[in-house]
Specification:
The chain has 289 residues and is of the alpha/beta class. It is 31% helix and 20% strand.
């Protein structure tokens, strides 16, 4: 029986937010190849993906974890080049929670973290759906938090975790596409299962997924406690709290840190731990109950 082959192609898009670049994963069991996260719209990256195909191999499907430009933007061009359909939960914003839908309708805006508003999959997946592709069974798990339409893909004990759980840093959670309550729930869902390896959207393969997922969860619990402690002296907004909490963070990463703090504040307010006048925004001042 042909064994499953997993290959990593790293896109040439290193940055403070992408580490050494976006990971594109190729899965194959014979001649049919699945591409997970084609990556940014770079002709050189597409050429590298196609050059990795062995004689007789073809791309059967393109799976996208979420509609961020560094993960999904190459999907249309790669689909045209290979004839393979693009599969995802849906376009940017699909799967958004009722809380974030309400806050967005009230005027809450995002932080401009590269949503791919043009992304439209050929086939929309549902949570828990099992895909039978290329002799493989791939489970699609809706894991919102980093983004509303985020999926993880699982097969044979491998977890392709996209940007929900990465191998090099914690994830950006920027409302209204990001949702801290949903993020924590998604981590708990993944923590409840045993994984052989975690293959993230950025960084290296994680050989102890359980420990990594627990570390990420504890990190967010610690940040939540820091937010509450920083609110104890006096009410404050996300920018003020970020300066108090992220004292050693490089300046280039402070805008992302502020979005994470805002996500914690909105989640804490939703859980009635803190309060703020409505409508809520990035500049809202929050206080303890």
């Amino acid at each position: 029986m042909t064994e499953m082959q997993v290959r990593l192609i790293r896109a040439p898009n290193p940055s403070a937010m992408t580490h050494s670049g976006t990971n594109t994963w190729l899965l194959s069991k014979g001649n049919a190849v699945l591409v997970i996260d084609p990556g940014p719209d770079l002709a050189a990256h597409q050429a590298t993906i196609l050059a990795e195909l062995e004689p007789g191999q073809r791309v059967e499907a393109i799976l996208v974890t979420h509609a961020h430009l560094d993960h999904s933007a190459l999907a249309p061009a790669l689909s045209r080049a290979t004839g393979a359909p693009v599969l995802a939960l849906g376009p940017a914003g699909a799967g958004q929670s009722a809380l974030m839908t309400r806050l967005q309708a009230q005027g809450l805006t995002g932080g401009g973290e590269g949503l791919d508003h043009a992304f439209t999959p050929d086939q929309r997946l549902i949570d828990g759906e099992t895909l039978h592709l290329g002799g493989l069974q791939i489970e699609a798990l809706h894991t919102p938090g980093h983004s509303a339409n985020h999926l993880c893909f699982a097969t044979d004990g491998l977890l392709f975790s996209g940007d929900l759980a990465m191998g090099w840093a914690s994830s950006l959670v920027s409302p209204p596409d990001g949702d801290m309550g949903a993020y924590m729930a998604s981590l708990r869902r993944l923590m409840a299962r045993d994984w052989r390896q975690m293959l993230p959207g950025h960084g290296n393969v994680v050989d102890d997924p359980s420990a990594r997922l627990q570390d990420l969860y504890r990190h967010r619990e610690t940040r939540e406690a820091e937010v509450l402690a920083a609110l104890t002296p006096a009410p404050a907004d996300a920018a003020t709290l970020t300066r108090a909490i992220y004292r050693d963070t490089p300046p280039a990463l402070l805008p992302a840190a502020e979005r994470n703090v805002l996500a914690h504040l909105l989640d804490l307010a939703d859980r009635n731990h803190i309060t703020s006048p409505f409508p809520l925004s990035a500049r809202s001042v929050f206080s303890l109950m």
